Amino acid sequence: MVFINMAFDEDVWELCRKIPRGKVSTYKGLADALDTKAYQAVGNAMNRNPRGAWTTSGSDVVPCHRVINSDGKIGGFAIGVEKKIGLLSREGVVIKDNKVDLKKYLFRF
DNA sequence: TCGAATGACAGCG
DNA sequence: CGCTGTCATTCGA
To answer: Which pTM does this prediction carry?
Structure first.
């Protein structure tokens, strides 16, 4: 599954945008969709934060908060994992012990 | 459980 | 200008 080859970061953000509300994706999923093995690069791209994607999920920015570890753990978040959990919870994603039910909320590209 | 791999960027020499 | 280290990670031994 190949997309436009951009600055890598834009590809990542583009995929993040495709994640529907109420679902989550994993760094591995994004990396795999981009045909790359740099899982860290995916998260790193978001960490750089393209344009303050730290708003609620209803904004016109990249919902980076829907991307978590392949294990379902939140991993980390620039503004704080708690905020990320809050956003996901607001979308209907139930988080248990800092983990998400990938079986129910994992979105596949 | 620990280390290597992978991509990009910031910092330092 | 070039190299090393770091980072929201993942997989293999």
So the answer is: 0.88
Q: How many domains does chain A have?
A: 1
Strand C within 7 A of A25 CB: no
- Of A residues 70-89, those with CB within 7 angstroms of nucleic strand C are 70-71, 75-78
pLDDT tens-digit readout, A80-104 = 888 889 989 999 999 999 999 999 9
Q: Which residues of A are catalytic?
A: 64
Q: Is residue A1 one of the residues assigned to a domain? A: no
The DSSP annotation for chain A comes to ------SSHHHHHHHHHHSPTT-BEEHHHHHHHTT---HHHHHHHHHT-SS---S-TTSSS--GGGEE-TTSB----SS-HHHHHHHHHHHT--EETTEE-HHHHBPP-
In a domain, A2, yes or no: no
Provide the domain limits for residue A66: 9-105
